[in-house]
Amino acid sequence: MINVxxxxxxxxxxxxxxxxxxxxxxxFKGRFIQIFLALKFFQxxxxxxxxxxxxxxxxxxxxxxxxxxxxxxxxxxxxxxxFEANYLxxxxxxxxGRKYPQNTWRNNFNIQKGIVCYAPEAxxxxxxxxxxxxxxxxxxxxxxxxxxNGARCSLCPTGSYRNESHRKxxxxxxxxxxxxxLDLQNISNFAPYLAPNGHRIPILPLIVALYHDAxxxxxxxxxxxxxxxxxMSDFNFSQTELNTxxxxxxxxxxxxxxxxSQGWVVxxxxxxxxxPNPPLPARRAARVAQAPGAPNLAATAAxxxxxxxxxxxxxxxxxxxxxxxxxxYPVSRQQLRYDIFAQRGRAKRYVEVKxxxxxxxxxxxxxxxxxxxxxxxxxxxxxxxxFNPTSQK
Length: 393
Description:
The chain is α/β, with parallel strands linked by helices.
């Protein structure tokens, strides 16, 4: 059992992860590891390539930001780069001293230097095609023979390669409707990134870094003490996947170093129970309690009236937006803390719907307030009063 609330343990964990990056060498790709962990974490709400459905880039980016955001930090400097011990702005916000909005993830979704493929599911179902180097792809149109630099894909309407040949993790719809998942349990497709040349990720610092100060609207933010089984359940990892990607042994120097920094006496493997962290000194605990920017978790949304499930109100708003020319994506089940993502041309709207069968006095959760702040003028609170879902047109 790992107490993930200790800020000193968290800082030590980040140090261990930066050491792991240096040890793994030039083949280490931390950004891709973070994308993979997010795909696993949210996999039950993301479409498979066999479903005929797709998820928009904006939603994937928001989910990635949500998983790595630290709630005591501001949105313009709160998204953790796991293996670099630094923080970036949420997607679309300009960080301090920067002129342009942050774009952390999108390039790695696209063909220039990413893990996307436009091929139909019949091709992507073949392990031979999945494992094939992109230089040998039947759809490749090279600019220079034998090079990906400047090469194009015949299925891709825009963009070209930047001389990076990555594995295929996402299928992109050539019509522009978004992305769908390939098989996330195909270990051979992900092991070169998670464990390059056998350098598996030390599990103890990873767990601390993921769960400390996490968003309370998702599973990582609801736990103060984490067991290995919790991590496997939250991120949908089998025992085989765990053994391939992560090192849970106390023979791992970084696991052992982090445990010893807390004065723990541990067994040979992390699967054994760990004692709780020793109490913080009183002065340090006071500083932690007074840390600025911590969300007010007492502010919870008012429960909907019995006659209104909330779903009908969301449909009503979605229909109104559609009639006004917006392309609408209902996302209320994806734990984003807004109900609708809408797009019209370059304009984007993040819509949270609050309704009541009488007067409505909406209350936002801490996460909803954070989203409102992050998206500023693009965040819309749709309030419907005197709503009767059985007769509303």
